[in-house]
Amino acid sequence: MGMSLQERLGLLTQLGEYLQSDDERLMAYVQRTFYHNPWFTPDNQRKAMKAIAREMLSPEKLQEWIQPYQLPEALPSEKTIGMVMAGNLPLVGFQDVLCVFVSGHRTLVKLSEKDKYLLPHLISWLEERDERVKGRVVFSERLNGFDAVIATGSNNAYRYFEAYFGRKPGILRKNRNSVAILNGQESPAALHALGQDIFAYFGLGCRNVSKIYVPRGYNFEPLLEALHEFRDIVLHEKYKHNFDYNYALFVLNRAEFLNTGSLILQENPSLLSRIACLHYEYYDSQEDLAASLHAHREDIQCLVAGQPLDSWNTLAFGTTQQPGLHDYPDGVDVMQFLRTMSLP
Prior knowledge:
CATH architecture of the largest domain: 3-Layer(aba) Sandwich
Distance between the termini: 21 Å
Radius of gyration: 21 Å
Number of helices: 12
Number of domains: 2
CATH class of the largest domain: Alpha Beta
Strand content: 15-25%
Largest sheet: 7 strands, mixed
Structural class: alpha/beta
Order of helices and strands: HHHHEHEHEEHEEHEHHEEEHEEH
CATH superfamily of the largest domain: Aldehyde Dehydrogenase, Chain A, domain 1
């Protein structure tokens, strides 16, 4: 007998409680992941798990999120959804797995080599709580026998996705970056919050701010002072290596840049910046800013601003790495896609 929708939601609520615990076995997998991938520090893994528990697995948020989809208790047509995971942040693909599990479909997952221990442990934990979970989420090195696909990767990987998965229904994602708009009137608290958007998870996520837009004549001193408060990040060996390398590169090339001791700011129109770097671009008017943003619309994941902006869903400073159940990557509604897969 299959699980009902409410049984699945109840099990996920239990998982949320587990993710916020200090369970010895959970912490052992955290340490194993860190040993395998030093970018995934125990603190960052705990941060990711608590954010998932708070924003995605509370019973109130799950019920409020799922209600509009009007999912049936029993699917008329159960499908297998192939999934290719990114590995830039801890548990970065958890929301996709959650969506498929809640929808009632099965998932065939190809994990990233950078994050291959924690998610399988969480699925095993669910299987221990309810044996009906077994076979709902399967991990495999190769994807075969799936009906649809959700794949996330780099721009290079996207070309592979199109070639390999193009004939299947699917959601294919490539590189996106997040930007922030400053007007020079931000408070120290707002600038510090922006620092969280920049530095969280070492800036490796598509929801991390990698570029800022500032008005012509902008005074950088308050921003540099706020960002200097995150200077301890250079104590991380891999981050420091990237910072030192990029600093040497800029010096050797005699490029102009600003330096906080833990972050290099450079005027550059590109949304994508190197690790330990932040790009900035000047704007002369709101019309000028709107035109520049519009040109990059398909490449922007999050837009951070202190005030609303026409035709954009703006986020408050300090909130980019707290996505909720409605915050689907690239703005593509995964649950609606899965709901259409349920139709006979």
